[in-house]
Design goal:
single chain; 325 residues; alpha+beta; eight-stranded mixed β-sheet; five-stranded mixed β-sheet; 9 helices; 13 strands
């Protein structure tokens, strides 16, 4: 039998849920899914990633395949200094990778502190589809990858090693805003079936402490997908994003009725409110709603993203921002 106290709690929760789910589109209405595919991804290297993802989406493929294969293009590029092979190492000279993936059924997989395997996003998908777990880390993640046929290889390129040795001369750790105008790559896609998926992959902050993990492999921080509402991903200083469960926050703000760009802005506002000093603290969010609308916002200027759909042929968009640097 439900007590009066529990009845009041349930009634309050029900009212809140009703407002959150329907306030933007009128009472008892839902967001109508778009049947027009779209893919968005962070930074300049999003162009490369989107090209592959759009090949899949435009041929009627799934958003899940698109977000996996799309970001793998960047993981496999040795000239990129922040994702996959060629990524900047930690302060001990070791390249450690983090990644996660999430589909329309809220299934998700993640790896953290993975070494010697250049495609962490593919390992994350294997975890999602072939294990009862969501995240594997360190040696366990590597062991799983090798068992699944992934090849062990040296991810530290000559260029990245040279940069690390130069850094060792002073060994000062300080995040740099928009370093080389690329960072983590996050990707969100909507397919012709109206389903959403997302991915996020990175080598993490350059010259971090050995063992450090940021927001990128954490579901709800670096990435979140709710197929009823939309999807969001994040880039920038992971510690700040984790503090507010940033990508989950963006999706919930869209659930409450905010447009994608506005939801990203409000999440940025939340981060700014949590920090007394914003020096060097760049964070950017992307959001893709179920109806195909998308947007982004960042703390500082300089954050951009790539978008591809039937109307836009894979172009870069500069986000609005809170402050200049």
């Amino acid at each position: 039998m439900t007590s009066r106290r529990n009845f009041v709690k349930l009634s309050a929760f029900g009212s809140l849920f009703s407002f959150n789910a329907f306030s933007a589109f009128g009472k008892n209405t839902t967001i109508l899914p778009s049947k027009e595919p779209v893919v968005i991804s962070t930074w300049n290297h999003g162009i490369m990633a989107n090209k592959k993802a759009w090949e899949i989406l435009s041929a009627g493929g799934t958003a899940l395949d698109a977000v996996e294969k799309g970001v793998m293009e960047v993981e496999n590029d040795p000239t990129g200094a922040s994702v996959g092979i060629g990524g900047r190492p930690d302060r001990e000279g070791r390249v450690t990778l983090d990644a996660c993936i999430m589909d329309e059924r809220s299934r998700c997989g993640a790896v953290a502190f993975l070494q010697d395997i250049k495609n962490p996003i593919a390992v994350a998908r294997k975890i999602m589809e072939e294990t009862p777990h969501i995240m594997l880390v360190g040696e366990g993640a590597k062991q799983f990858a090798l068992e699944k046929g992934f090849k062990e290889e040296n991810l530290l390129t000559e260029e990245s090693e040279k940069a690390w040795k130069e850094w060792l001369k002073e060994s000062k750790y300080k995040p740099v805003i928009n370093v080389e105008n690329h960072d983590t790559i996050g990707m969100l896609a909507l397919d012709s079936n109206g389903n959403l998926s997302g991915s996020c992959t990175t080598s993490g902050a350059a010259y971090k402490l050995h063992g450090r993990v940021g927001d990128s492999p954490i579901i709800g921080s670096g990435l979140f997908v709710d197929n009823e509402i939309g999807a969001a991903c994040a880039t920038g200083l992971g510690e700040a994003i984790i503090r507010v469960a940033g990508s989950h926050l963006v999706v919930e703000l869209m659930r409450q009725g905010h447009e994608p760009e506005e939801a990203c802005k409000l999440a940025v506002d939340r981060i700014i409110a949590k920090h007394e000093n914003m020096d060097g603290l760049q964070v950017g969010f992307l959001a893709l709603r179920k109806d195909g609308k998308y947007g982004g916002y960042s703390v500082f200027n300089g954050f951009n993203y790539a978008v591809a759909n039937k109307q836009i042929n894979n172009e870069l968009v500069d986000t609005k921002f809170d402050r200049s640097w």
